Amino acid sequence: MTKKLFYQNPYLSEFSSEVRSCTEMQGQYAVVLAETLFYPEGGGQPADRGELGGFPVEDVREQNGEVVHFLPRPIPVGSPVLGKVDFPYRFSLMQQHSGEHIFSGIAYEAFGCRNVGFHMNEAFVSVDFDRPLSLEQLLDIETESNRRIFKNLEITSFWLSSAKADTVAYRFKKKISGEIRIVEILQTDRCACCGLHVSRTGEIGILKVESFQNYKGGVRVFLKIGEQALIDYREKNRELHSLAAALSVKPGEAYASVCRLLKDGECKKQERNSLENRYFRLLSDSLPKSSCLCVYEPDLEAEAVGRLACLLGEEKERICCAVLSGMPGHFLYAVASSVDARPLCRRLNERFSGKGGGKKELCRGSLSVGTYQEIEREIMLFETGTGSH
Ligand SMILES: [Zn+2]
To answer: Ligand 1 center to residue 236 CA distance, Å?
Structure first.
């Protein structure tokens, strides 16, 4: 069994050891050492990164009590080897893992919620709880978590034999047989865990609920912890200041300013629609009341193309009203009919590489080939409702 130096001191990043075995495995080399500082993936915590014998460690896993390091190149068995763990990455995971324990411990203490799922990667931590929590409740847990962080409480770990397991109260996800490793945060939490932790809560720095969503009858909470919280704050601060500068307002006024802009945009859209409708009516009155009509308006949006076709079709004598907008290569079209617009729609799609469809009364789509004249000819030739020329 590999001696796990990371449990003795998770703050060390360099070590030397002896290569016990090196086996080729699907293009990688599985290396087992006498002892290691490399933490293997487990308990929700990703494997350490770093170098072994000058080669990058691509993965670390525990297999039958041995810690197996996966390298791109072989290293000689029996030889001494130097290992170097990527400590900033390891420390960030330690901060996040300890922060998650505090958050889950307080969620359990305050609201009886059990942590039933835990994921951690470079960027964030997510925790699944077995019952719903409101935003207010999550913010209460967040506030209390940070208070415990500021108190700089001691974090320790100890092994508990299965015979004594019932004598100590602790949180766990599943019952484990044999010796159990318990991580204890003073006055806060005790939890079965095989991961690595900081030694005092102050090292976590800060913990923030980033977002949450309903999940399997409970809630999934995304947390930003430690340096990841700083990175997140920095990015969001930059984003907010850029937004405020673009809007020429103070950062705290950006949201209200965007709401005003959206409301203004909506009002302008309504004004434009009403002006368009007045123009559409004048246009309709000026056009012949023939059974088939084709109109070209170059700059209409898709919705307005349909609106104009409907309005033209209000004239009873017009059996088929087609409207085109855009330009060759991308024409928008709408066909309104008092009989059936679908045969003409299908015909246009076939003839001019178009797509679109709709109901009997109104069909809409776009055409990717054909000039306006060719399309107009096709429309005017079409006997509405018969599906043929
Ligand atoms: Zn843990």
So the answer is: 28
